[in-house]
Amino acid sequence: MNILYVTLLVVVLDQSTKIFIKGxxxxxxxxxxxxxxxxxxxxxxxxxxxxxxxxxxxxxxxIGVNSKVxxxxxxxxxxxxxxxxxxxxxxxxLLTRLPLALILGGAIGNMIDRIFYxxxxxxxxxxxxxxxxxxxxxxxxxxxxxxxxxxxxxxxxADMSVSIGIILVLVTNFIPRNNExxxxxxxxxxxxxxxxD
Length: 197
Description:
Blueprint: H1 4-22, E1 24-26, E2 31-33, E3 41-45, E4 49-56, H2 68-88, H3 94-120, E5 131-144, E6 147-151, H4 157-172
Antiparallel strand pairs: 1-2, 3-4, 4-5, 5-6
Helix pairs in contact: 1-3, 2-3, 3-4
């Protein structure tokens, strides 16, 4: 199985859901998707899961707005390195390659937003787009030394793919390798071997 199909599937799902949420109009192609208003929210599974349209102008959780261009350029290099590394692992097991394919797909999905969405949606320059987030999940209430969290940060399919990939990397590194042969027992000491007084 070509594992890059997994990466492609993540990118297609991520971008199609983002465009459906944000909306797009291309008159020459007859495309007119209304999308949601920024900040609006639709209950999907009661209060537990809502579709809430927000845009993240920075990195993860809105960090680093001022260094967005530098971060995007760095992401391009990291993504290219990850792509090359994944190609070199094509003879490895699916468990080794799948997490990296998920991480790569998520990285590309969010990178498309940062590079092209400013120009595509007439809201900024190249490399200055905002990432579209919309999955709004209820979470157990956390209160820890002044830190309060009662809903998870709003995320998207690319974020979810990267997170699942990282979890799989951690889990698979703790799975014992059954295909490793048992070490050969140490050779027996010869009967004619003696220790002199």
